[in-house]
Write a structure and sequence with these properties.
The protein has about 400 residues and is of the alpha+beta class. A hairpin with a 2-residue loop joins strand 2 and strand 3. The longest helix is centred in the last third of the chain and has 21 residues.
Length: about 400
């Protein structure tokens, strides 16, 4: 910090020629004249001294018979004096400072972190819908109001921190980490039946509420009522006297099958890169794009861009991007799967299909898929026998309450 202050005020690099240098330096210390970078070279000393300190040396030099030689002048005052005729240069500096100050009044970078289920792009898209975008003036952003708006738009975001640092709008979000997902079902208090959404043989049925209409081992078809949401209140003769409606609730597992078929050709094409590449630079200032790239001489190629955003400090981003565009040449080669490779690829696809089923809590009971290879293709086909949970709720059919006959009166 001290060196920067000396540079702003200006300082001199001097050479001290004296028979009594120690006395001279002691006098400088007594008069509080700042001296730094003191070096002994041959029969003299060299040091740095402030401009104001230099003007106090005359009486000290007379007392110690010392001669002073100026070796260099440094600092902003000397720089401005030396370049006082370069008006355009200083005007450019002033304009540059003015432009940087003007840019510092706007947002040039929007940063979102802490989000998992909601993508950064979806949040940025919503911000654009409410007119929060790159280039917006910082003074027009109400951070607390923006945080409330984001929580309303994204219900699974339970906490939002919005702050402005430099030219960055930083959003720290926290999402609901509870992995339990409430089933989108009819409210428990709403009367409903539980019906089958797939066909199969029932292997397990645990009823918590309602009247079971199927038993373990029975076959059910799509649309069949598994659990009835109507309870018949009967009298001693077994006749219904009143209907009570509930929300049917049960865990029903069936044994069903999935037909699997996947076919792919034995021949395939693959990119082979030649190692040749061509690079060019590009610049982007706000929405203006400038590229030095010309039409590529490669017949087959793909381009890779590497972009860098200009920033003065960690939080002072500018709307300037630069980078390179690189074209990589390739040509297509035709290959043929061997039998082992084809079987491995077919098994990999089958494993991916089974994994997707298991993610839905489907248990694989039997795997009857076979892999065949002919002259042109590889075919995997067969049946997967699975155990899975079924059942969806539908509104119950309301029946008219039965009429209770009035007891006959007897006359005496």
């Amino acid at each position: 910090m001290g060196q920067w202050i000396y540079y702003c005020k200006g300082y001199l690099h001097i050479r001290l020629i004296s028979n009594m240098p120690e006395r001279f330096l002691n006098l400088c210390a007594n008069h509080q004249i700042p001296i730094w970078n003191l070096k002994h070279i041959d029969n003299y000393y060299e040091m740095n001294i402030t401009v104001s300190g230099f003007y106090q040396l005359k009486p000290l030099c007379r007392k110690t018979c010392t001669r002073i030689q100026i070796q260099g002048k440094y600092g902003l005052p000397f720089f401005f004096y030396k370049n006082k005729k370069r008006t355009a240069f200083f005007v450019g500096i002033v304009l540059c400072i003015a432009v940087l100050y003007g840019m510092s009044l706007f947002i040039w970078n929007i940063h979102v972190d802490g989000n998992l289920s909601n993508s950064t792009q979806s949040i940025v898209t919503y911000l654009e819908e409410i007119d929060i975008h790159h280039g917006i003036r910082k003074s027009t952003i109400d951070c607390s109001e923006l945080a409330v708006s984001i929580r309303k738009e994204f219900p699974d975001i339970i906490w939002v921190s919005v702050k402005i640092q430099g030219t960055r709008l930083i959003l720290h979000v926290q999402e609901n980490t509870d992995t339990y997902k409430e089933e989108e079902a009819v409210n428990d208090e709403t009367p409903s039946d539980l019906v089958a959404d797939k066909e199969g043989v029932i292997v397990s049925m645990i009823t918590r509420q309602g009247v079971p209409q199927k038993n373990q081992g029975e076959e059910c078809k799509k649309g069949d009522i598994l659990v009835l949401g109507r309870l018949d209140i009967t009298d001693d003769n077994g006749e219904a006297v009143r209907y009570q409606y509930v929300s049917a609730d049960a865990d029903v597992y069936i044994r069903t099958s999935y037909q699997y078929y996947h076919e792919f050709p034995l021949t395939y094409e693959k990119r082979e890169y030649t190692g040749k590449k061509k690079s060019s630079v590009f610049f982007q200032i706000m929405d203006y794009y400038l590229s030095a790239k010309r039409k590529s001489s490669f017949k087959n190629y793909h381009s890779v861009s590497a972009a860098n955003r200009v920033k003065l400090t960690e939080n002072f981003y500018l709307p300037i991007t630069y980078g390179t565009l690189t074209d990589y040449e390739y040509h297509m080669e035709t290959y043929v799967y061997s039998n082992n490779e084809a079987v491995a690829k077919a098994e990999e696809r089958l494993d991916q299909f089974i994994s997707r089923l298991q993610e839905k809590e489907v248990t694989i009971n039997e795997n009857n898929v076979e892999i065949e290879i002919n002259n042109t293709s590889c075919i995997a086909k067969g049946t997967l026998i699975v155990i899975e949970k079924i059942g969806k709720t539908v509104p119950v059919t309301n029946l008219e309450q039965p009429k209770i006959p009035e007891p006959e009166s007897t006359e005496e």
